[in-house]
Amino acid sequence: MGVYLFKRLLLIIPTFLGITLITFLIIQMAPGSPVSLKIQQMGGEGIRTETVSKAVIEQTKKLYGLDQPIHVQYLQWIKRLATFNFGDSYKDHRPVLTKIREALPVTLLLNFISIFLIYLISIPLGIFSALKSRTLLDQAVTVILFILYSLPSFWVAMILIIYLGGGEYLNLFPVAGISSQGVGELTRWGQFGNVLWHLVLPIIVLTYGGFAFLARLSRAQLLEVIRQDYIRTARAKGLSESAVILKHALRNSLIPLITLSGTLLPAMIGGSVVVEQIFSIPGMGKLGFEAVLSRDYPTVMAIAAIEALLTLVGILVSDLMYVWVDPRISFEGM
Amino acid sequence: MGTKHESYWRQVWRQFQRDKLAVVGLIFVLSLFLVAFAAPWIARYSPTAYDLNAILLSPSMHHWLGTDAQGRDVFARMVFGTRVSLSVGFVAVVLYVAIGIFLGALAGYFGGWVDMVISRMIEVMICFPTFFLILTVLAFVGPSLYNIMVVIGLTSWPGIARLVRGEFFKLRGQDFVLASRVIGAGSLRIIFRHILPNGLAPVLVSSTFGVASAILVESGLSFLGFGVQPPTPSWGEILSQSRDFMDIAWWLAIFPGAAIFLTVTAYNLVGEGLRDAIDPRLKI
Fold first, then answer.
1. What is the residue-wise DSSP string for A107-145?
2. Is the ipTM of this complex over 0.90?
3. Least confident stretch, B16-20, B94-98, B279-283
4. CB-based contacts of A72: which residues, under 8 Å, 6+ apart?
């Protein structure tokens, strides 16, 4: 375990360097950079430098030192990453890090609630569906989950706004922001309730896809485990059905679901771009998207880098949980 | 070897046909391709022609799915939009499957430091939230059909690479691989002629699901105004237009959304059917 931990932590270093390299490659494509000029000379249709203002090009050149030798640029970029000095936003000239500090808690709150709900609903549902396998109820659940899995989130968001958000029909939920105007006058619990009430629709949109995915997976996992020999052994030695399922089958079927949690977070943060944009939630997704729209490169790069680093930590945590729940896993298996 | 291989895929096809829903999905996907090719003959109006006398008309005999805020025929735009969704789904997935197979095969076959390096590359790519990474790159290079396909292709390969790597780990120690090595086959030949065909089935399944998610990504980008640029019609773009007219023009929201949903569902059904046909053990 100790050796595993050490080796696992050591592996962060190359991955971190990889993240710096990928983000650096993206910066190399910035308008005005040698690479983008080259692509333009070759007749690449993609980079349309003429649509970017001269000022942005000059600022970007200066910010990332695009006129300096490439190794100097890279060292500068690593230094920026290591010191979290991402420069000032082109849009409002506030430090990018300050803007991210305001946005990150909102996105994390949204995603942690969503992931919690996803696990809370989908695992019991998957187990239920697996135990009732091949019954009418199981089939109904399977069909519903399949439909949820394929529904585009932005479409669902729009339909929810039309029908529940005061578009044409019911006006049950607010559809913009995370709190009402004048929320500060409410009591602490009132404020809390107000925020939750604002988050209902976004959280529905954020959860249903992952929830369908995970419920289907946990059903398949449990059915797979139930077929194993050790389950037959457990039944043969006369254990009660609930002991077989809860003690033997369930624990083994949950293992892959746990590792998923590490990769679920980045997928959901990516997905929250659309959700935050539609519901005007001032989180990382909206900040990032607006930065992309206005070519606010310092903000874009900071968000890409910080989200990658966060995920790195998330994957590390889920790897460690994996070893913790399943002693058979060793470093050799990676 | 050749005949045995063929009969395996014929077996898969026979299994696949038993799954009626998967067959329905396949027929739906194939007819969409037909619609995309025959778009100019199917649509009765131009998808880009403005008609200021026909703004926001609800569905009727003339305009089957109504018109948009510029008086353009929604049916024509939907029909032509099929081209965008299908080509992005197809090209992007072919691109990243090729990258994924190449890297996964190298890692799984050679192991050791090659595997170490490629595994780190996979981990690095997984660290980036894909959708935001795609947006980020598009912020630098600008959105266009071509860029979207390339960017999705270059960012989405880790899943396939992992899959192929795992398949190669399983297969490289088997007797038929040893046998071909004994005969003196080179590494490249063993990788592409012997191991890869045996490990291709799960890749096919995963790519089918991949097309579904690439279509979702493209329509999401278009919905945010970061997809194919106007006047080219795409489903996501029609849907995004409807945001301003949600109360008065339901047809702008319902039809493109339903088209995306049905297409994604169809691909997912085909993927599930293929998965069950390839690995009957998973049939539940």
1. HHHHHHHHHHHHHHHHHHHHHHHHHTTTSHHHHHHHHHH
2. no
3. B279-283
4. A65
How far off is chain B from A185, nearest CA to CA, in Å? Answer: 33
Tokens, residue A47: 């980079």
Question: What is the distance between the alpha carbons of residues B148 and B134, in angstroms, rounded to a whole number?
Answer: 8
| A281-290, B79-88, B153-162, B176-185, range with the lowest pLDDT | B176-185
Name the residue type at position A9. Answer: L
Measured between alpha carbons, how far is residue B17 from residues A216, B4, B11, B175 in Å?
23, 20, 10, 32
- Radius of gyration, alpha carbons of chain A: 24
| B244–A contact, CB cutoff 8 A | no
CA B17 from centre of chain = 22
What residue has token string 């030695």?
Answer: A237
Backbone φ and ψ for B6, nearest 5 degrees, come out as: -60, -45
Tell me how crowded residue A235 is: count the other CB atoms within 10 A of its CB: 15
Interior/surface letters A86-105, b for 16+ CB within 10 angstroms, e for the rest:
bbbbbeeeebbbebbeebbe
pLDDT interval class at B24 (50, 70, 90) = very high
Q: Which domains does chain A have, with CATH numbers?
A: 96-333 (1.10.3720.10)
Q: What is the largest CA-CA distance in chain B?
A: 77
Chain B residue numbers touching A152 (CB-CB < 8 A)? 216, 219-220, 257, 260-261, 264
Torsions phi, psi of B38, nearest 5? -95, 15
By the 8 A CB rule, do B43 and B63 touch?
A: no
Tokens matching residue B140: 């630098």
- A contact residues 242-281, partner B, Cβ 8 Å cutoff: 263, 266-267, 269-271, 273-274, 277
Calculate ∠ Cα A199-A201-A204, nearest 5°: 105
d(CA A219, CA A122): 9
Enter the tokens of residue A93. 């000239």
User: Among residues A151, A101, A164, A113, which one has the least CA distance to residue A268?
Assistant: A113
| Residues of B whose CB is below 8 A from A292 | 135-136, 138-139, 226
Instruction: Report pTM.
Output: 0.86
Nearest CA in chain B to A300: B136
Q: CA dist B129 to A72, A151, B125, B181, B275, Å?
A: 28, 20, 9, 41, 27
Query: A269, B129: Cβ pair inside 8 Å?
Result: yes
The tokens describing A118, both together, are 């996803």
Between CA B218 and CA B235 the distance in angstroms is 9
Q: Do residues A8 and A319 lie in contact, with contact meaning Cβ atoms separated by under 8 Å?
A: yes
DSSP type of residue B185: -
DSSP helix/strand/coil, B73: strand
Residue type, B54: A
Residue whose pair of structure tokens reads 């019954």 in the numeric block: A135
Tracing tokens 């237009």 back to the chain, one arrives at B241
| Whole-number Å distance between alpha carbons of B21 and B273 | 8
Contact B226 A307 (CB under 8 A): no
